[in-house]
Amino acid sequence: MTKNSMNPLLETLQAYPFERLRTLLAGVTPVDKEFIDFSIGEPRHPAPAIVSEAIMEHLHGLAEYPKVIGDLRLRQAIATWATRRFALPAGFLDPERHVIPANGSREALFSIAQAVLPPCQSPKPLVLLPNPFYQIYEGAALLAGAEPYYLNCDASGQPDFRAVEESVWTRTALLYINSPHNPTGATLSLETLGWLIRKARQYGFVLAADECYSELYPEGQAPAGILEAAAATGSLAQVLAFHSLSKRSSVPGARSGFVAGDADILRAFVRYRTYLGTATPPFIQAAAIAAWQDEQHVQHTRADYARKFAAAQDILGALLPVETPAGGFYLWPRVRDGETFVRTLYGAEHVRCLPGAYLARDAHGVHPGRDRVRIALVGSLEDCVEGLQRIRHFMEQHPISNFNIY
Fold first, then answer.
1. Taking burial as the number of CB atoms within 10 A of a residue's CB, which of 88, 144, 263, 385 is the most buried?
2. Longest dimension (CA), the chain
3. pTM above 0.90?
4. Distance between CA 372 and CA 122 in Å, rounded?
5. HSE toward the beta carbon, residue 186, CA cutoff 13 A
């Protein structure tokens, strides 16, 4: 196959953050210490026993072709969970019409753009996304032939949606929002979510709410969700919520999540996914049912992250000011030059983080990630403490002026 026979839109994709990180660290020989990886948001907590047991008990499902719409029992478990979690009116979320399983939120967040964006339109439709962002949003927009439009996050950690000009809204076909946000951890209020729903209905675009970090929050401070905001309007029109078990239940290898929302959009999305072949294996569906029906393991997970954030505050202190986020498991400290910080830290301490520049784009004269670094507290408490102590040692041994830290 020649290059000319390939989809030319593939050339518009930028290198993925971890590919860029490998290039940055190439040639660096780290000190002889055990490797600590803070770069990737992959939970390394033990998988809940109920999930593992459900998989083992349902391996006979290997002999079955799964259905794209999923087992009704799974959709019912999801609807029951979401109704309880977001205080939805009874019957508001119909498992027969408003819920479909997904192979993780990543797969669904990407494919929704291919399903809903109009092809060959001039000017290109806009796909709005927060900046910094999960790169799947950008790639989905580009491969659908749309134009990404970056909404820079301000000091709050979220974009100022009310500052978006009406001329932008009129071209918008899809808006990705992320709450809690990766990497800032900032959440969107119920009021803001309601305002965005009204905008989506006014201009006819799809509102895709990535809420895969929604269950990782300080205990007692659960963030609002788009389904809750939609319920206040009495309708799910133009609204889709994307959730995952990867973060909530520490099972990224299961690739299991769901999409819930507008029945008309989901009906068309199921048709698209039937051709794509994204049906979830029966044994994974069984594990998902068990996971969505249990909250005890999630409470333990939140407690584990709380201990790690407390350790970060205690260990790093004033040397590298960090804030405990409203959601998620990332630290997002300001270091001015993230690439220099990450490369030098890796060599000196064998600790790998991710430059914030790899999660953002230069937009509207601002690059909201260049002076940041993302630290994913996904390992065990012991590993995180060790890694944080090495970062502290690194800061003590290297003059702050080398990194122009604020």
1. 144
2. 62
3. yes
4. 36
5. 18
358: its two tokens = 């790899």
Phi, psi of 207, deg, nearest 5: -105, 110
Sign of torsion, CA 99 105 111 117? positive
Q: Is the torsion defined by CA of 245, 224, 211, 206 positive or negative?
A: positive
The span from the CA of 28 to the CA of 347, in Å, is: 6
Quick count: other Cβ atoms within 10 Å of Cβ 311? Answer: 16
- Return the CATH superfamily for domain 3-46+296-402: Aspartate Aminotransferase, domain 1 (3.90.1150.10)
**CATH level 3 topology of 65-292:** Aspartate Aminotransferase; domain 2 (3.40.640)
Domain layout of the chain by residue ranges: 3-46+296-402, 65-292
Laid out side by side, the sheet with 373-376 consists of 330-331, 373-376, 354-355
Q: What b/e sequence results for 256-269 when a residue is b if at least 16 CB atoms lie within 10 Å of its CB, and e otherwise?
A: bbbbbbbeebbeeb
Task: Give the whole-angstrom CA distance, residue 226 versus residue 219.
Answer: 20
- pLDDT per position in the chain (406 positions), as tens? 566 788 999 999 999 999 999 999 999 999 999 999 999 999 999 999 999 999 999 998 888 888 999 999 999 999 999 999 999 999 999 999 999 999 999 999 999 999 999 988 889 999 999 999 999 999 999 999 999 999 999 999 999 999 999 999 999 999 999 999 999 999 999 999 999 999 999 999 999 999 999 999 999 999 999 999 999 999 999 999 999 999 999 999 999 999 999 999 999 999 999 999 899 999 999 999 999 999 999 999 999 999 999 999 999 988 888 999 999 999 999 998 999 999 999 999 999 999 999 999 999 999 999 999 999 999 999 999 999 999 999 999 886 556 655 4
Sheet holding 257-261, edge to edge: 99-102, 257-261, 239-244, 206-210, 172-178, 126-131, 147-152
